[in-house]
């Protein structure tokens, strides 16, 4: 082990014997009491020394025997310690790819704030490389989303769509102007690769998965069609629900951006639940949806899609996707986040499991077991900590450490 105090957290002394790690309230923490000698010893915990060398240094500085081990254990339990050599074989492989890791350094630092154990952050970053995600829809939102996921280290980002890239698909981070006239899905895959050129080729990886099993950790539905964004068809997602594939919705309808719901089949409300719930509240809903779907003049017109709104939606959707892929349950599970121009205030609208929907989420909800609150890890959380364990870990913080209210 080569311990380092998480460099992502800025350090400051609140008084003579209390250190504050971090600035922003979400992750800031204070640790004390700490004497000045121990405080200056923290500078040696920078990932360049193993424990034996650190013990020698401590001895030279006149710190008592066992002090280093106690300090390292305490910092690790408080979630303040990383391990420059930890994270397992996949992390070691990632460290061997210097250019890749250099590009991902800010993301690694960010992950270190969301993980507790030494080496967890790089372990999680390395795990992203083995994930397969599919993005359906390569308009402005979908193409940017695919690029973001690739840039964040997701190993395989497959993009599906039809037709050719149009001038109005072009957006920074998404399809470039040169791609107009090219196949839309190919152009989006090429763009995603541009932002993360080091990933293994798609075909080789696909060949490794068992025949007939798409094996996607997550499917993101980012339709270019505004009706599909506003009123996602339950039939489209039915194969995903029945195969138990987690999927996330994102898109722009008129001047409203939508992120969610993230559907954990059988656990959180799906497109069918959304449709049934809306029909309960508004009996005219199915009639309206039918008209929108068959509406005249629907196919020709270029749909409204503000480029900054599309980018905002893609960014938030990608962040929710990553949170899920990293083993957490984001707030889009069972909810749609919506934002409208020009006010730009985000609202979450719950998508409850509906008893008339065959997905089974309503039954799950009845038991009071909302996703992420029953402590059961979801499919891609295997080997990672559930939210309950996380809470327990938080509760187990050693005395003298607490969240700083700054
Ligand atoms: Zn449902």
From TrEMBL:
Domain THIF-type NAD/FAD binding fold as annotated: residue spans: 123-358
Q: Where is the composition biased (Basic and acidic residues)?
A: 180-206, 363-395
Signal sequence range: none
Cross-referenced InterPro entries, in alphabetical order? Bacteriocin_synth_cyclodeHase, ThiF_NAD_FAD-bd, Ubiquitin-activating_enz
Bilayer-crossing regions: none
Region (Disordered) spans which residues? 165-211, 361-406
Its name, as the record gives it, is TOMM leader peptide-binding protein
